[in-house]
């Protein structure tokens, strides 16, 4: 799925999975009241954790696709210096 030399994409993927897991756990813990389960609070934590984690996973996939395109073109990154217009 991910190439081993693209560490940023892998870190973002694991961050997204961790956020989803944390949202599920937080929803279970915070949504539990003394006598009953607060389903609305639980559901809000689950959905927000899922959407936040999905954002990180999508960002990691975008970075991975850009990395693949760069490797496919066989070009080295250029060391362009900034040229100021006023010089």
Can you give a write-up of this model?
This protein is mainly α and 87 residues long. The chain has one domain. Helices cover 67% and strands 0% of the residues. It has two helices and no strands. The protein has helices spanning 7-30, 39-72. The longest helix has 34 residues, at 39-72. The chain is elongated, with a radius of gyration of 20 Å. The N and C termini lie far apart (46 Å). The model has no long low-confidence stretch (mean pLDDT 86). The chain crosses the membrane at residues 12-31, 43-63. Keywords: Membrane, Transmembrane, Transmembrane helix.
Relative helix content: 55-70%
- Order of secondary-structure elements: HH
Q: What fraction of residues sit in β-strands?
A: under 5%
Task: Indicate the low-confidence ranges by residue numbers.
Answer: none
Domain module tally: 1
Oligomer: single chain
**Shape type:** elongated
Structural class assignment: mainly alpha
Number of helices: 2
- How far is the N terminus from the C terminus? 46 Å
> What is the number of strand segments?
0
